[in-house]
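FIELD: query
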Amino acid sequence: MKTRITKLLGIKYPIIQGGMQWLSRAELAAAVSNAGGLGIITAATQPTKQDLVKEIRKTRELTDKPFGVNVSMLPDAGPQDKTLAYFEAVIEERVPVVETSGRSPEQIAPHLRKAGIKLIHKVPAVRFAEKAERVGADAVTIVGFECGGHPGMDDVTTMILTPKAASRLSIPVIAGGGIADSHGLVAAMALGAEAVVMGTRFVATTESLAHPNFKAWIVKARETDTVMIQRSIGNGARVMKNAAAARVLKMEERGASLDELLTVISGQVGRQALYDGDTDGGTLPLGQCIGLIGEVKPVQDIIEEIMAGAEDVLARLQQIWS
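FIELD: result
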């Protein structure tokens, strides 16, 4: 399966691992890259520029394939000088690919291009995708309402956003949100995407650093076991439906301030719960595709099954139209 994305990024399969804070570390990213996709490590997981450099070098020790670094520019990603330090690290280390999200990458795009680094900007709406193309992104990831994390505030699904973005842009479009198997991959391609990004599916893998309690929760979960929070602060997030999420919703109902909400939704609270195995202790971004995940597997097996299954789906479609 060859697309402009596989050619642009130098990967075998059009599958990109989502940049998930605390989980997108060298072990998971390298496993995805070694399996033919594009692994991503998340800058915000690392406390300092020096820590990110160490993680980049560790990833290189584990794979000789292309990989990327996610650098969030959302307000909750930390001070701007810290974000700039992350960009300095990826440029100095000559990371092949950078994925950005949040604010426009207009200021950093020329520096990445000069360094020969491919820029993918992730957005929740077509208007932002068009802006990303104008300022120099090499590709755009568009995520629908089904996705884990931040799907924007418009509540529009992947089924709508993907073909609209593909028809409006000249650069390649990557689809995200609700994709976890071969059917999702083929559907995204049919909608005009040239690759898919998957985050939630890679949480439930043997290489994921999530506590086994969270992996077991995902396997048992249904597609209705996520919930949207943080709408009151204009930063909607889809997370697992647990006691922590319920607390947040009650706090929002009574008009809690951001400082109050942070006692539950802060990254450090989520990190502690994620590593300790306390499935009610914090909010964990997960997408509706949890309803499609029935087993914890190695990354290699997941990607091979998706690609083999895609061939079966295509064969079935050919029979229908023959």
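FIELD: remark
The two ends are 21 Å apart (CA to CA).
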